Amino acid sequence: MERRGYGTDYINRYKMMTRFHHQRIPLIILVCGTACVGKSTIATQLAQRLNLPNTDMVYELLRSSTEAPLTSTPIWERHFETKEELITEFCRECRIVRKGLDGDLTKAMKDGKPVIIEGIHLDPSIYLMEENGRASPVNKAEDGDSEKSPAQCDGKQQLNEHENGSAAKPKAIIVPIVLSMADIDHQMLLEEWIASRSESSITEEEEAALIVKLRTIQDYLTSFESQGVGVVPISATTFPQTLDWLHGYLLQVFAAHVS
């Protein structure tokens, strides 16, 4: 590679990534954040750079499919008496979405394949508990979910075995990332997003209420910075730099787990 003009840093990175893929270390990258913070764009760009698959349709499928476990009305369009009530319902929906991800996560654990998952309904606390080997709320029976098929139980057992390190394969790397945006920029994008989604005109008060609920969820997600979750500022003007930083950050994570 040196003869072809590649530098030392590039060669070392190539060797490290080759070892990483050969060791088949399960890798789950979570791109969290509320609406209009660039989750889909960041996840897609990272997936292309790192040659990884990404998943982002689980919530919509759970909300819109036949006998869907989530209500068809998004959480930010429903009424809540308090912010605490909103966050409680948000966390409940996040646990349901986590169940919907069982197939992708079990495959990643079993096959040692990396995956990027992005979406609003990714509660870092669920995945932090799983990474630390503690019982996750997702393993507790939800309303109407006390009975599971053998396939579901087997899949969850395999996932827990890998997460708890009882299987022979390397322990999974779970990397939650929360994207954050300056208040002014975020509000402008949210206003445009709400206008594009609304089938009929809404009042200024209704729009303000929607934005408050979305910002409340965002504040909850960014609160996990104190627990070691990376909160990454992003804006339209610094997007390339943010992508470069995330790319470099993930490469450092890979290097720390490659023997």
From TrEMBL:
Domain of life: Eukaryota
Protein name: 2-phosphoglycerate kinase
Annotated region described as Disordered, given as residue ranges: 136-165
